[in-house]
Amino acid sequence: MSIFLETSRLTLRQFTEDDEDNLVELDxxxxxxRFLTGGRPTPREEIRDRIPRLLGYYERFEGFGFWAAQxxxxxxxxxxxxxxxxxxxxxxxxIELGYRLRRSAWGKGYAxxxxxxxxxxxxxxxxxxxxxxxxMTVNLGSRRVMxxxxxxxxxxxxxxxxxxxxxxxxxxxxxxxxxxxxxRELQGMR
Length: 190
Ligand SMILES: CC(C)(COP(=O)(O)OP(=O)(O)OC[C@H]1O[C@@H](n2cnc3c(N)ncnc32)[C@H](O)[C@@H]1OP(=O)(O)O)[C@@H](O)C(=O)NCCC(=O)NCCS
Known about the structure:
alpha+beta, Aminopeptidase, 6 helices
């Protein structure tokens, strides 16, 4: 197992081809997929097709990509975080944060714990200058994680192709945190 990062309760490790079942199960819960596809599970074939691209990040970008989250106490697969450059529109020093956890893991602070650890590592070790994250405006749980991780709202905008998702008419929100603001926040806490 190639471990990328550990927090007090989580291990973030590289994905492998053996994670197909984990990913299928994660995406099979309509509640997990509610604000991503409108609840539609991701078919196994689609996940199988995506795995090589997901593994490809580790070679293309050292220190960035998709990380499988495991609960330290049980070793159980909980879901994943991504912390990666935007491949379509890469911007120097800018990294996108995202997360998807199985329902049984919600409400325990895991998404916040993993996000904060990735942000810290990004700013202190990986040369990241700005972290961005997006979610549906109505995905209040996801927005709360962004806020607890220190990101603030930048803008609300509309994107085509999301109209199967409940609340799509309210659009998408973008949040961000710069290294300078993160450092200032840390100083304030001392
Ligand atoms: C979003 C998600 C990752 C959050 O994971 P989590 O581990 O439960 O998050 P945390 O426990 O760290 O924090 C969640 C916060 O949101 C709050 N929250 C959750 N649902 C909420 C809702 N419907 N309305 C308001 N706040 C909500 C929680 O109370 C908590 O805040 P608090 O600590 O101030 O009470 C998880 O719900 C998930 O995987 N959802 C499905 C996939 C998804 O939507 N991913 C984001 C796509 S951009």
